[in-house]
Design brief:
The chain is of the alpha+beta class and 267 residues long. It folds into 2 domains: 2-138, Fructose-1,6-Bisphosphatase, Chain A, domain 1, CATH 3.30.540; 152-266, D-Maltodextrin-Binding Protein, domain 2 (3-Layer(aba) Sandwich), CATH 3.40.190.80. Helix content is 33%, strand content 28%. The strands form 4 sheets. Strands 3-4-5-6-7-8-9 form a 7-stranded mixed β-sheet, with helices on both faces. It has a 5-stranded mixed β-sheet with strand order 11-10-12-16-14, sandwiched between helices. α1 (2-22) packs antiparallel against α2 (43-55). The radius of gyration is 18 Å and the shape is globular.
């Protein structure tokens, strides 16, 4: 327990320090580049990444971050930090307060401590399996809503714009387009939404911290095809994601299976 407490304290301290970094950057007033693949990156992404690399890894711990060239030596490490220094860069650039810093600590492929911070909304989420999930120091739990009827489901704003959510038209739940997937997972963990469905592949750094937040708050997270998640793999892409309490998770997977079957039948 003391070991995990120390890791959570390191996460909390790092989030506090990098939150101060964001005070020096204003959305819309930072330089933006387009990475290979089309995603934007800003000076603040790289500044926070550098700060976290200095603050977090110790004693041979590995490192995996969106803004650092991947060193596959991490595969030989028992303990690895999995970090997204700014998840939701598009929202940050646009001045939409749905972005965050995401930090996770993996041990033998499982996330054992994590934290997510949204500096704009002043929300700090911390978690370990032993201590549960907290929001600004107060314990939180996932929603107890047991039916998709009337549920609030968070969706990627980009996926909605691309028309990928048209398949859910007529379903009995409310779809709320939201930015950062890490932040969406944190909101589900805190019971501020009932579920998350992410239709597009995500990288480990996008979801690692949020997965533990949800699980430590009594929820479950699985891939779109209902497989468990492991981390610090050679290939970091995950085939979509579902997060909710156990009752809703089962219903969502049944819905996804039904929609996929209908699609196959139509073809």
């Amino acid at each position: 327990m003391a070991y995990k407490d120390d890791i959570v304290k390191r996460v909390s301290r790092a989030l506090s320090i990098v939150t101060e970094i964001f005070q020096d950057f204003a959305p819309g007033a930072v330089g933006v580049e387009i990475k290979q693949g089309g995603d934007p990156v800003t000076e603040v992404d790289r500044t926070v990444d550098t700060a976290l690399r200095k603050l977090l890894p110790q004693n041979g711990e590995g490192w995996l971050s969106e803004e650092t060239v991947d060193d596959l030596a991490r595969l030989n490490k028992q303990c690895v930090w999995i970090v997204d220094p700014l998840d939701g860069t598009k929202e940050f650039i646009a001045g939409i307060p749905e972005w965050c810093v995401s930090i996770a600590f993996a041990e033998d492929g499982k996330i054992v401590a994590a934290g997510i911070c949204n500096p704009v909304t002043e929300q700090v989420f911390l978690a370990s399996k032993e201590t549960g999930t907290t929001l600004n120091g107060n314990p939180v739990r996932v929603s107890t809503h047991r039916s998709l009827d009337g549920a609030t489901v968070l969706a990627s704003r980009s996926e909605v714009k691309r028309g990928e959510w048209e398949r859910f038209a007529g379903e009995p739940f409310t779809v709320v387009p939201t930015g950062s997937v890490a932040y969406k997972l944190a909101l589900v963990a805190a019971g501020q939404a009932d579920a998350l469905i992410s239709l597009a592949p995500k990288n480990e750094w996008d979801i690692a911290a949020g997965v533990l937040l949800v699980e430590a708050a009594g929820g479950q997270v699985a891939t779109l095809d209902d497989k468990p998640l492991t981390f610090n793999r050679e290939h970091t892409l995950v085939n979509g994601l579902v997060a909710a309490n156990p009752f809703l998770l089962k219903q969502i997977h049944k819905l996804l299976g039904r929609l996929e079957h209908s699609k196959a039948g139509a073809n």
